[in-house]
Amino acid sequence: MSATEVLRRVPLFNDLGEADLARFAEVAREREYPKNSVILFEDDPGDALYIVSSGQVKVVLIGEDGREVILSVLSDGDFFGEMALIDDEPRSASARARSDSRVFPIDEARFQSLVRDTPFFALQMMKTLARRLRNMDARIGAPSKVKKKT
Questions:
Q1: 41: pLDDT confidence band, cut at 50, 70 and 90?
Q2: Nearest to residue 94, comparing CAs of 102, 104, 86, 83?
Q3: What is the chain's mean pLDDT, rounded?
Q4: Average pLDDT of 32-52?
């Protein structure tokens, strides 16, 4: 599958014009990761956003006792690695191939230019981050909103 076809499957890129999409597709080089291999490590500097082309990728934290806590499992069309590109902090979690997987990295400079030059993309990124935060809240048992009586 071509980079353009992969990007078209990612909601973040759905409404990009052909010229913008082509800018990113032309530099995206698919990388293959065998099952259980590390794609990126927690605390590494952020250098790219990764789009899953095929397979499954798990985003994990490793506890002090060596146990793995799975934060999410991603598949075709999902993406990861954006947080470190947004806040210039190290990676907050590791990513491992749960099965033989293929990903398309988009380097930091291209990601930053897309956010800066394409307001729709920036808004879609914020919506995705908010959705992920809400899902994480639900997973850890955040209480429902309580209406205050006045």
A1: very high
A2: 83
A3: 85
A4: 94
Please identify which residue in the block is written with the tokens 């990126």.
Answer: 40
Confidence of residue 150 (pLDDT cuts 50, 70, 90): very low
Domain that holds residue 60: 3-136
Q: How far apart are CA 126 and CA 93, in angstroms?
A: 19
Cβ contact 97:35 at 8 Å: yes
Cα–Cα–Cα angle for 4, 1, 126, rounded to 5 degrees: 45
Q: Is residue 46 a contact partner of residue 105, using CB atoms and an 8 Å limit?
A: no
Give the CATH number for residue 13: 2.60.120.10
Q: Number of structural domains, the chain? A: 1
- Look at residue 147 in the predicted model and tell me its pLDDT: 46
Lowest average pLDDT, out of 50-54, 66-70, 133-137, goes to: 133-137
Residue 123 C-beta-side C-alpha neighbours within 13 Å: 6
* 147 lies in some domain: no
Task: Report the 3 state secondary structure along 125-144.
Answer: HHHHHHHHHHHHHHHCCCCC
Give me the residue label for tokens 């981050």. 129
